[in-house]
Every structure is written in structure tokens, then in C-alpha cells.
Amino acid sequence: MPWRPETELEIRVELRQRVGAIAQEILNAQPCGLNEARHLVALMERWLRESREGILGSVHDHFGREGVRSHALAVACLMMNFAHHADCPREYVLEMGLAGLLHDIGKLTIPSEILNKPGRLDSEEAMVMRGHAENGCVLLERWGLVSPLVIAVCRHHHERLDGSGYPSGLIAKDIAEPVRVATICDVYDALISRRSYKQAWSSALALDEMRRARGNFDPDLLAAFAQSLEPATL
Predict the structure, then answer these.
(1) Pick from 39, 90, 138, 143: CA 20 to 30 A from residue 24's CA?
(2) Has this prediction a pTM greater than 0.85?
């Protein structure tokens, strides 16, 4: 379709409508879901090329609604924007988008009373929640998705450079760059989003907090990530 002012709204509505259906197709191991996911990522990539400030604006207003679906869309957009800003090939940009869209797919396996609990999780609930990383890989592999990049991001986006993350406690040398980027995008969107126990942070405040969290994030990639947001949000 030709690009016109209302195209952004049409894409935004389509993204929100389809992402939930894709999640159920993955949960039920329906292969058509992969084509749907790639279609969504292609829509977002086109939006990024045509209106970078428009798509980043939607990230920062949570696509009109907060929650797991909006977080998946936001991380996908942020990862694609990072790769696009770094002049990566389009195929890589799309793969980063797919990884971002599916990084938290394992949360489909988490009981709703834990996933949607108002307030912080206790230690037992947190252990269950941590299972979403490995559970997501099981879903993706059962679904027939064999992309090493997408699987790695799904499994390891909660790893930290100092070895304090999960599920494998990897240290810096064992964490691939796409996973490091995914970690930055995942945490950034969590910080700028409202939760039952916290208000949404500004982009500048979120980035400052992440810079102070030494050992968690690759400082060079974090600096490049901040640059990729300018001047749209800072």
C-alpha cells in the first residue's frame, strides 16, 4: 500500500490485532504463525524506513496500551531501529525484529496469577517467572523456528555481562552481540513502561540508570543504542 499519513495508524492497529493471534499459534504449534510473525516484522521495518520518529513515538506511548503484547512490539522496534541505525543489511534488521517480537514468548507458559500479579513477585514466583526463557525456546523449536539468533535472544536476554543473569549465568565473552542488544532493549522498555509498583520513567532517566548499572550492559552498545534514539525521544 502507498505510504500516506494514515498508514501509521493502520499499521499500529494491525500490529496490536495480530500479535495476540500469533502468540496463540505458537502455543498451539501452528506453522502459519511464523509467516504471520515475519509479516508483522516486515510491516514494522517498512514503518521504520518511512517514519522513524513515528515508530519510536509509538514505542514510547506503548502502542496505545501497556502489557506483554506492547512490550514485544516495542522490543522488536527498538532492536530493528538499532540495527537500522548501524546500517546493517535489511535481512539482519528483519531477523533482529523477529527476535525482539518473540523474545518473551515463553511467558505464555507462566500462570496468569504470576504473570499479572500486581506488585513484586516473591522468591518462589520469581523462580517460576524465570522459566519463561527456556520455555520460550521449547515453544519456538516445537514451532519449527530454527534461527540461531532468534533462539539465542529468547534463551539469553536475561543474561548479564558479570554472570549474574539467567538461565545459564553466562559471562561477557559468552554473550553474543544480538543478545546484548536485546538485553538493552528489553530493560529500556521495561523502565519507560508503567508497572503496578512503579511509574513510567522518561527516556533520559532510563538511560542514566542503565549507564550506572555497571556489569549489566555492554557500555559501547548502550551508547550506540542511546544514539539510535536521537533525536526522536531525547
Answers:
(1) 90
(2) yes
